[in-house]
Amino acid sequence: MPSDHLRASAAIPEATEFDLVRGLSEREVLVRRANGQGNTAPAPTSRSYRQIIVENVFTFINLCLFGLGIALTALGRILDALVSTAVISLNIVVSVVQEIRAKRTLDEIALLSRPTATVLRDGQERDVPPDELVVGDVVKFGPGDQIVVDGRVISEGHIAVDESLLTGEADLVAKQPGDTVYSGSFCVTGEGCYVAERVGTLSLAHQITASARAFRRVLTPLQREINLVVRIALLIVVYLEFLLVITSVLQQINLGDSVENSTIVAGLVPNGLFLSIAIAYALGAVRILRFGALVQQSNAIESLSHVDVLCLDKTGTLTANRLQVHDVYSLGNFTKAQVGEALGAMAANASGGNKTSQAILDVWPSPRRELVGEIPFSSARKWSALAFKEKQGKREEGEEPGLAGVYVLGAPEVLRPYLRGMAGDDDREPSHAESSAWHVIGEQISALAAQGLRVLLVAHKRDAMSLEDQGDASTLPMGMEPMGLVALEDELRPEAREALQAFAHAGVQPKIISGDHPETVAALALQAMPWASVQMVSGSELEQMSEAEFDATAESAQIFGRITPQQKERLVRSLRQQGHYVAMIGDGVNDVLSMKQADLGIAMRSGSQAARGVADVVLMQDSFAVLVPAVAEGQRILNGMQDILKLFLTRISTVALVILSSLVVGAFPLELRQGSLVTLFSVGIPAILLAVWARPGPSAQGHLTRQLLHFILPPVLITSVLGLLLYVGSYALWLVSIGSFGARNGIYQLDDYPAAQTTLTTFLVFCGLFLVIFVEPPTPWWAGGNRLSGDWRPTLLAVGMMGAFVVITLIPALRALFVLSPLGWRELLLIASALGAWLFAVRATWRLRLLGRYLGVSAS
After folding, report:
1. Which of 20, 553, 754, 845 is the most exposed place for a label (fewest CB within 10 A)?
2. Who has greater pLDDT, 291 or 518?
3. Is 600 within 8 Å of 614 (Cβ atoms)?
């Protein structure tokens, strides 16, 4: 049942005057709605289009990059500002479009699954949407109907409701006149009316989800790493810009050149990283949608690959919220066929079906029969009974025999006093033989219960022809004869065991958290995870623990039963605080708080709208099977982005060192458009295609920072040294070729030889493209910085782009566009020699781990 403090938090107004036959009048409805008594609460987890846009645009990094764009505009470099902000703008568009599409899909699901209410207005029944209800409305309901607002039962009869979406408990809850029914629950048996008393924000479902209204955005480890890279790059840019200002003042460099140099330095900010990760996320979302998962948060698929603790609700999540017959066992002289016939007849003729009767009918379908009495199921009594009238006259050949007398189905221990020769029969104590008979039955029941099965006993008395329904005070005729036992089991989702096993092999620890009894949850857990050792804890035990004991139990236990929504939230929070990356799978309102607390929230499509609204991923077919390929997609994103990070960090560090070193010799090494060319060829185009071509599979083991340093430091240092030597060396060769005296007071400067910049640009472009091959080595020769991949696509891309660059240098118009100068054979020979030295030096440094040995660290 809902927790006491939740029940107390929504004060029940005084009883509303109403006419059970006529209900409210239209005028009364209008007056109450005008007085704020209408069911007009907003969806508890709804995201507006404005929220989606604001959350994607106004991030710290975006604001910094847009600030740089504004600064470039102020410096008169409008085109450069547009180029600088275009990439981050495209990233925003990709993310916003994806999340808006997810919102629209969920809105359509909510609309299709939106319940209606049958109300009495002016004596007429009307079907209205829930938001048209007001306090005092008389609402009719029957089996299968959803309770749409909190109210009080005002009709007689036996009613049982399913409150599992609110509490997580699978047991049906009986409702009597005057009892409260809660929005989000479902009527299973019986029918009647209730009067709406708590609507909108006062409803229990709204109280549970009130603290979960704000949509949260959780950054993944990869996103945090990228943000760190960008922030470091921003610091480097600020420092270099400061040096440029000092240099411009000391050397009296004209304003146009100063602005151009500043723009080149600003281009070191790796805004292309955001576009690459946006594309990777979008591709992952599209791929996983084919398997039946809707991604609401763009980073959700990558997030799944980091999960090391998977928390699951039981009812409706791990199970299909259905029962199935495990087996039937006959007792005494009865056969299995006779027991099955009796079970089928009871299930087919009971007023108001439930999950038990549906499971029985799936195995033993039966026709309708004439009844002379019925006592419906009650969770308080734990049994139901029917009295059949024997068919009069002669049976036709082949016709099934009639069922006459009273038949009862219920919990064995509750029915024992009514059974013949077991206990209480004819006001006498059972004999030793009779006690032994029950002992045998009890052992069989215990053995079945130990397997996690729900065991019911069916018994009958042929000479009793009527039953008197007196509610929970109803009784059965004494001396009933036991016919047999039926064992039922919660129906696991068919793919659940395979998915959980795949997670377990990947090192993910499953934890089942449910509102059901711990023993019930544990038995189901053994079905889903037969390889696991089960440690059980109840919610009442958790309440008695200190904070330290609670954290230790959250870490060690796997099964949690009789857990409230607040305890679920606390368990997830505790696991996160202990360093775990936690995913929570749920379907009900009772799961919303814990899903919001988790690093990754996953909801079932068939669950509550509140759960779907807060989830990062929605399983559209309620299938666990989609989680296995989702993990592979997360690995694909991680692998691709790690390669892209290596390229970007190498490019940023190299260009920064080259610029810093060149200031020593008093000349800026690159033109603005040359810098753009280096970026486009070394990281721009390759990064996008590497994101597309990324492969699933485990990431390289070890500390990511050390892996990055192992890959990045050798090419950065070697490229910077060789690049500066090449820049100055090409100038020296030119001086030698023309003599040492010249145009400016008899002294030539680097600025007088633009081919030096072209030489350096060519070297940096080719080094960047060779790194594309090194980051995805197609053969063992290229392995060293990264593991062998065997994928030739990046290599072919690099070779093709080398050819494209050569074409640019050969065509005068394209050369002029990128401010490139024609090169002579001396420069070309110098570039070729430098590239050869670079290839072997970088490869040897990686393979011999020279920097690691020098620093005393390893890549792992």
Report:
1. 20
2. 291
3. no
Cβ atoms 610, 205 nearer than 8 A: yes
Q: Are 192 and 156 in contact (CB under 8 A)?
A: yes
Asked if 313 is an active-site residue, the reply is: yes
Query: Are 586 and 622 in contact, with CB atoms under 8 Å apart?
Result: no
Residue 698 burial (CB count, 10 A): 10
Strand residues in 34-134 grouped as ranges (E)? 117-121, 124-128
With a CB cutoff of 8 Å and minimum separation 6, the contacts of 439 are: none
Confidence at residue 747, expressed as pLDDT on a 0 to 100 scale: 52
**What structural domains does the chain harbor?**
285-319+494-630 (3.40.50.1000), 320-390+401-492 (3.40.1110.10), 700-860 (no CATH)
Give me the pLDDT at residue 170, please: 58
pLDDT at residue 654 greater than cutoff 50: yes
Task: Look up residue 715 and give its DSSP letter.
Answer: H
What pLDDT, in 10s, does the model give residues 162-179?
A: 776 666 565 667 788 888
Catalytic annotation, pick one of 150, 162, 313, 490: 313
Q: Distance between CA 293 and CA 102 in Å, rounded?
A: 10
Find the range with the poorest average confidence among 328-332, 495-499, 724-728, 792-796.
495-499
Structure tokens at 676: 């753009």
Angle at which helix 518-528 crosses helix 496-505, to 10 degrees, equals: 80
Number of other CB atoms surrounding residue 340 within 10 Å:
20
Q: What pTM was estimated for this model as a whole? A: 0.67
- Give 105's contacts (C-beta < 8 A, 6+ positions apart): 294
The distance of Cα 106 from the centroid of its chain, to the nearest Å, equals: 14
Supply the DSSP string of 472-541, one letter for each residue: GG----SSBEEEEEEEEEEEE-TTHHHHHHHHHHTT-EEEEE-SS-HHHHHHHHHHH-TTSPP-EEEHHH
Residue 505 burial by Cβ neighbours in a 10 Å radius (0-12, 13-18, 19+):
exposed
| Nearest alpha-carbon partner for 661 in 712, 736, 717 | 717
The token duo for 50 is 């404005």
Tell me how far apart the alpha carbons of residues 603 and 611 are, in angstroms, rounded to a whole number: 6
Which of 180, 162, 184, 159 minimizes the C-alpha distance to 171? 162
Determine contact, residues 31/196, Cβ cutoff 8 Å. no
Residues with Cβ within 8 Å of 715's Cβ and at least 6 positions away in sequence, in order, are: 650, 654, 767, 771, 774, 785, 838, 842
Strand, coil or helix: what is 582?
Answer: strand
Q: Would you call 228 exposed, middle or buried from its count of C-beta atoms within 10 A (0-12, 13-18, 19+)?
A: exposed
Task: List b or e across 562-579, with b for residues whose CB sees 16 or more CB atoms inside 10 angstroms.
Answer: bbbbbbbbbbbbbbbeee
Q: Which residues, at least 6 apart from 548, have a Cβ–Cβ distance to it below 8 Å?
A: none
Cα–Cα dist 79/66, whole Å: 14
Distance CA 6, CA 203 (A): 10
Strand, coil or helix: 174: strand
